[in-house]
Amino acid sequence: MSNARKKFTKKEEPIRNNSDFWKWFEANQKDFHQAVKVRDHIERDFFERLSPKLAKLKDGYFFLAGMLNETTAELILTADGNPKNISFVEDLVAEAPDMEGWKITGLKPPADIKDFCIQLGGYKFDEENLSFYPDDSPDFPDEINLTIAHREWNEKDQKEITVGVYVFLDNYLGEIDAITKIDSVNVIRRSDAEKELIPIGKLKDFLNWREKEFVEKYEGSRHDTENDEHSILEGDSESGNRYLAVVNNFLLNWDRKASHPWIAALTIRYDGRKTNGMPSRGDNEKLAQIENYLLEELKAKDGYLHFGRRTADGERENYFACKDFRKPSKVFFEIEKKFGKLFSVEYDIYRDKYWQSFEHFRTY
Fold it and tell me: For residue 353, which of 255, 238, 266 has the smallest C-alpha distance?
């Protein structure tokens, strides 16, 4: 009989919620601190252990880590600019315990432009190389569309330079402001500028001014959808299946759309192969249950306007125009967890101040 000893690995508790995650992190924080400080094997000893634990909670967590000083390590948890994951990052960080030698930060914080420079693909992104001007549109006056010029822009590397600009904005403005205060960005060479270029260091002041104007213009905007008229739109989808949509007529033509600049879209896929793309009776009952839950949780008086729904080709989509993106992401995630074994559930949350993504409903 062999006298070799068996080596037993301590079994870790499963990660089911934020509290479980932080208990696991706290139990390993000294090893993680050493990995961040020494950095020789940070991927193996920290990042490769952290990633799968975060994934147990939800997809969409990203992170950065480094030493703030000789004794304090910082872990920045980020949604990588995706609005539908912001609230989950915020909640996770809010539950972080106090740990000596650690600072846990939620989302990329804003930086002083004098203190940092992004280097990516051989290019620098800083106050010396970047400038901007706003692209104002008379048709969409509340949109914040920016043209940003890079001193070394060239067509060959335009994708890399554009990515670098977005990374710069994320770090300069901070993750939340980069998401919530800018509608679109166009990157050009300086010689192609159609307006006078403004130093990038003045961008924060410009965005704060435009945000203040926007808030004052739409402050108090609410709408009760209970008595609104709705249209039932019927036709054929591109595949030839039946198409059915229910749309709120008042909201389609509302003149204060920008007061609810976030669109939350929930897509549920079912088997419609034998029913001309429509749900079966049993599936329809479950879909109605989901929609009742949506309307109960996302109320118009709280800033969540149910614009309508579309059913075709094995898909049921529900659309909300929202003042904020946090609660819809949580409600949609709960539906995914509860009904994910019955249906394929996907959702998206994006910024669309003038609800241009709804204009195709006018064609039916």
Answer: 255
pLDDT of 364: 57
Which are the contacts of 135, defined by CB distance < 8 A and separation ≥ 6? Answer: 145, 146, 147, 186
- For 119, the token pair is 């280097």
- Positions of E strands within the chain: 62-67, 73-78, 102-106, 118-120, 123-125, 130-134, 145-150, 184-189, 198-199, 230-236, 242-248, 262-269, 304-312, 315-322, 344-351
Distance CA 5, CA 15 (A): 30
* Helix, strand, coil percentages in the chain from 3-state DSSP, rounded to 5: 40, 25, 35
pTM of the model: 0.90
**Do 339 and 345 meet the contact criterion of CB atoms below 8 Å apart?**
yes
Same domain flag for 150 and 246: no
Give the DSSP per-residue string, 157-211.
Answer: GHHHHHHHHHHHHHHHH-HHHHHHS-SEEEEEEGGG-SS--EEGGGHHHHHHHHH
Signed CA dihedral, 188, 190, 194, 200: sign only: positive
- What is the domain extent for residue 70? 18-106
- Look at residue 219 in the predicted model and tell me its pLDDT: 81
Work out the number of other CB atoms within 10 angstroms of the CB of residue 242.
16
| Residue ranges in the chain modelled with pLDDT below 50 | 1-9
Tally the domains of the chain: 3
CA torsion, points 31, 33, 34, 40, in degrees to nearest 10? 110
Residue 273 sits in the same domain as residue 331: yes
